[in-house]
Each structure stands twice: as C-alpha cells, then as structure tokens.
UniProtKB/TrEMBL annotation:
Residues 216-343 form the OmpA-like domain. The keyword Isomerase does not apply. This is Peptidoglycan -binding protein. It comes from Pseudahrensia aquimaris. The keyword Ribosomal protein does not apply. PROSITE patterns: OMPA_2.
Length: 343
C-alpha cells in the first residue's frame, strides 16, 4: 500500500513552481504600488501643507484689504458729503451775488456797500470753488485706490479658487491610491489565508484526528498534556514527536510561501487557574505559560525552522477557552496554540 501511495504521489503534476512565480510577480507589483502610494502620499502631504500656509496668508491679505476698502469707502463718503455742502454753499453764494448785483444796479447810493459785499462774496465763492476742486481730486484718488483694491481682491479670489481646485484634485488622488492599497492588502490577506488553510490541512494529515489536538478558529490547539508533564516546561517524548512533525510541515510550507509575505508562527502558552505549588524554578502560571511557549519555539529552531519566523508568548490563566470552574474546563484551558499570521 505504501508503494502504491508513493506511486500515486509521483504521478501528480506539480503546479506549485508556476503558481509561486505568478504569485511572486503579483506581490512585486503590489510592493511597487505600495511604494508609489507612500511616495505620492508624502509629496501630496507636503504640497497640501504648503497650500494650507498659502491659503492662510491669502485669507489674511483679503481681510486686511477688506478693512482698508471699508476705511476708504468711509473717507470717500465724508468727502462726498463735504463736496455736497460746498456745492450747496456755492449755489447760495451765487444767488446772493446775483441779488447784490441787482441791488447795485437799482441804487447808486448803495453801490459802494453792494460792491464791497459783492467782492467779499466773490472771494468766498473763489475759496469754496478751490475747496470743491480739492474735494473732487480727493474723490478721484479714492476711486482709483478702491478700483486697485478691487482688482487685488479679485486676483486673490482667483488664486484661492485655483488652490481649492488643486486641493480637491489631490484629495481625489489620495482616495484613489488608498482604494488601490486596500485592494492590494486584501489580496495579500487572501493569499496568507490560503497558505494558513494549507498549513492546517497538512498538520491535520500529519498529526491525525486526535481529540487532544484540534483547530479553533484560525489557531491549531494542542492540549498541554500532549506536550508537557504537569507543572513542567520540558517537552516529553510524545511532545517531541509532535513538534518534529510540526517542524517538518513548517519547513515545507515556508519553502512555498513567497518571501514578500512576512509571515510568522505565533506560539501561545496558556494554563488553568490553579496556582502552582512548590518553590521550583517556575514560580507562577505566567512563567509556566511563557516557558512552555519558549520550549516549543526553541525545539522548532533546533529542527531547522528559521528563528525569524517564530514568536513565543505566555498568557497564563487569563485567556481561558472555558470559564466554568470544572475539571473539564481547566483541562481545555491548559493548551499550546499555534497561529500563522503576518508580522
């Protein structure tokens, strides 16, 4: 039967090399996209930061120009009021001059007085005309200044609109790159999940359908009694055999996973809630769980598994699978969990 099984295995077509090449090409493309995204995000963040500073400076200039425009408009209104008063006075003076000239023509006796009054009024009229001319010049100057201010405000508004448009375009580009990155990451997670499924399937085939070794979610769970004596962190003979099988499966799987997937096997140690008795080297459940996880990791390294692909963690009694205070629950909580994940 063993010969027939080997013959069937040899007759299988090996699709893995082509698949690994395709996957390597895909992951290289993903890394390129990630690099482009990071570079684009950095450049866009610098550009947006500079635009924010420019926008703030433009807004401050607009506020200052608006204040100046309001002040100039107030001054213009005052001058226009003065010009109106001067114009009214000029009209009154001209009427008075006409009346005096009429009186001068009507009586020779009152001619001297009329001429004096007419001369005084003429002098006043000339002064008011000069004041009116100065007021008109000031109004024209203010109109020119207001026109220039309006042009500056229009230019600033155009620059502000252009900056806002560029910012919207930058935001759209960032959103597009983010969507591409999410798609690439989702594909990468799917690839790792596929390798995790293959790994669990191989472990199930190697270790057999044992009740004390089972799959819980995305973890492969060994009951502590399979690997260690009670209260000890030293692998027993049965545990050494199981870990040898595990190391062989990890080495085979590691050769198939592309280097671009930065995977690790996390080894988690768990205990029950019964305190340790005695005064040995291991003082409590924290140290026991960590020491057991570390024993598994060190043995796998001795069997050829790369050290950078292994992580050891101890959780003591504080991550139980069962919360009931029964012997069966405590038996299930004493365990070593294996989880294939990314760094």
């Amino acid at each position: 039967m063993a010969l027939a099984r080997n013959r069937r295995r040899n007759e299988r077509v090996d699709y893995w090399p082509g698949f690994v090449d395709a996957l390597s090409t895909l992951l290289l493309a993903i890394m390129f996209l990630l690099s482009v995204f990071v570079l684009a995000q950095f450049i866009l963040s610098q550009e947006i930061s500079g635009k924010d500073t420019a926008l703030e400076r433009l807004n401050n200039q607009i506020n200052e120009l608006t204040s100046l425009l309001a002040l100039e408009q107030t001054t213009k209104q005052d001058l226009e009021d003065q010009l109106s008063n001067l114009t009214s006075n000029l009209s009154t003076s001209e009427q008075e001059r006409s009346r005096l000239q009429q009186l001068l023509d009507e009586g020779a006796g009152a001619a001297g007085d009329a001429e004096q009054r007419a001369g005084a009024l003429s002098q006043t009229l000339d002064e008011e005309r000069k004041l009116s001319q100065r007021a008109l010049s000031q109004v024209q100057l203010l109109n020119q200044q207001i026109s220039a201010l309006r042009k500056q405000i229009a230019a600033l508004e155009d620059a502000l609109d252009a900056s806002e448009e560029k910012e919207r375009e930058s935001t759209a580009k960032i959103s597009e790159l983010g969507n591409r990155l999410n798609v690439a990451l989702a594909r990468r997670v799917q690839e790792l999940n596929r390798f995790r499924s293959d790994f669990f399937g191989r472990l199930r085939e190697i270790l057999g359908n044992r009740e004390d070794i089972r799959i819980v979610g995305d973890r492969f769970v060994f009951q502590s009694e399979v690997l260690f004596p009670s209260g000890s962190a030293t692998l027993n003979q049965a545990g050494l055999g199981e870990m040898t099988k595990l190391a062989r499966a990890l080495i085979e799987l590691g050769a198939e996973i592309p280097d671009e997937i930065d995977w690790v096997l996390r080894v988690d140690g768990h205990t029950d809630n019964i305190p340790l008795s005695g005064s040995g080297r291991i003082r409590d459940n924290w140290e026991l769980s960590a020491a057991r996880a570390l024993s598994v990791v060190k043995y796998l390294i001795d069997q050829g598994v790369p050290a950078n692909r292994l992580v050891a963690a101890g959780f003591g009694e504080f991550q139980p699978l069962e919360t009931e205070n029964t012997q069966e629950a405590r038996d299930r909580n004493r365990r070593i969990e294996l989880k294939l994940t990314e760094k």
